[in-house]
């Protein structure tokens, strides 16, 4: 019970850790995949992905101008 209460206060941190684990396993993901996997809003997914980009863990790849082609990849 206490652990559940403590985890509620750190949702973003928990989400970022889970995302890191996903990227370590799958190497690249799109924002729409993150939305589905985490069951969060597109804005929340974008913010989490941007945070991981800012930390240098992943990079945003844009193969074309279409936003549907964009994906995020673990940084080598």
Keywords, separated by commas or semicolons:
single chain, alpha+beta, 3 strands, 58% helix, globular
Give the arrangement of secondary structure elements.
Blueprint: H1 2-8, H2 11-26, E1 28-29, H3 31-38, H4 42-54, E2 58-61, E3 71-74
Antiparallel strand pairs: 1-3, 2-3
Q: How many H/I helices?
A: 4
Give the integer mean of the pLDDT values: 89
* Low-pLDDT regions: none
Radius of gyration: 13 Å
Pairing-aware structural class of the strands and helices?
alpha+beta
Order of helices and strands: HHEHHEE
Tell me briefly what this model is.
The protein is of the alpha+beta class and 76 residues long.
Q: How would you characterize the overall build of this protein?
A:
The protein has 76 residues and is an alpha+beta fold. The chain contains four helices and three strands, in the order ααβααββ. Strands 1-3-2 form a three-stranded antiparallel beta sheet.
